[in-house]
Amino acid sequence: MLCLAAGVAALLGGSRPCPAVETETTLDEAQLYAQSAVLMDADSGRVLFEKEGEAVRPMASTTKIMTCIVTLERGNLEDAVEVSEYAASMPDVQLNIRKGEHYRLKDLLLSLMLESHNDSAVAIAEHIGGSVEGFAELMNEKAREIGCKSTCFITPNGLDAEKQMPAADGSTTKVMHATTARDLALIMSYCIKKSPQRDAFLEITRTQSCGFSDLEGKRSFQCNNHNAFLQMMDGALSGKTGFTGKAGYCYVGALERDGRTFVVALLACGWPNNKTYKWSDTKKLMKYGLNNYQLRDVSKEALPGEWLGAIPVAEAQTERLFGQKAVEVCMRDQAEAPGLLMKPEEKVEVCCSVKNRLEAPVEEGQKVGEIRYKVDGEVVWEREICTKEAVLKVDYRWFLEKVGNAFLAMAAGHV
Q: What predicted TM-score, i.e. pTM, was given to this entire model?
């Protein structure tokens, strides 16, 4: 019956018929329902598997992970939030807040992430950003900071939206509220790993249920978490569902096991009545990651030998006139070596680039080269090669001193 329903959905513009059954260690694009899918190493941001991972598509309520993290980083969870008429007018799914009511910011975030309430999203956005438009600017600023390349936020709740953007030539270009599976996975990775508010994000998104009232104590609410993935696999960490008629079913979720953290992002993963496709795809991708990728410390990879040699320095002050000077070098790490998720057969390419000659003066700790660690041609870690000591440049005073010492030595019969 499932395959028949999928076939009908495909004819109606929804998802395709059932994909083939997965194996333990292999995965093919055809095995996924989602039109766009990415499996990412949350710690390094490396894409481990993708299907149209760079295709720009609407992302529905998965938007709300960005709404949540921007709010956590900029707001006070005990703030009182006043509901505007515009916030109260949002379509389903709603908390059904009313104009003039006041709510604790943390309670609205729970409403946002557990039940995906659209009115709570707008109330939050207006409180933090002054307006929906102001908050969208904060969302886009954070997306750029994270490293997203093809994401545009217009709304805080993920409802389908478009707007005209001015171009340099005076014309306008229509853009839509959209992202890519890669960008969405990057945002989730940031939320659970790099944000200073990652613990608060995980606490909110992992809450199973909660109750709260408006600050006047006139109305009470109950919220339940709709992220079913939290109960589907050991180590399920966080996630957010989404759906609009334009976006289809979407999902972004994270799983942590044995020191490995995987993020899955799915866009356009079926349309009604194929609500479960996102869970099937998420589990396939997570199992593929768990069965194929292990942590590897790239700092233990063999280094090329050529970086070890001392570098000659021209115009350097030396112990005697016309002496030669070479400066020793060492490594200075810009960041801790990442524990990279890799398949056993994958190789780390270590490339060294270092200067073969320097001009005095040279500073201690001066960068003279770098070592790059690459996987599949992508740089995953860099180390700087630096000088161990400072070297002064010859000058008139030094020259006179050395010439004078030479004459004195000759006079004393020591030459």
A: 0.84
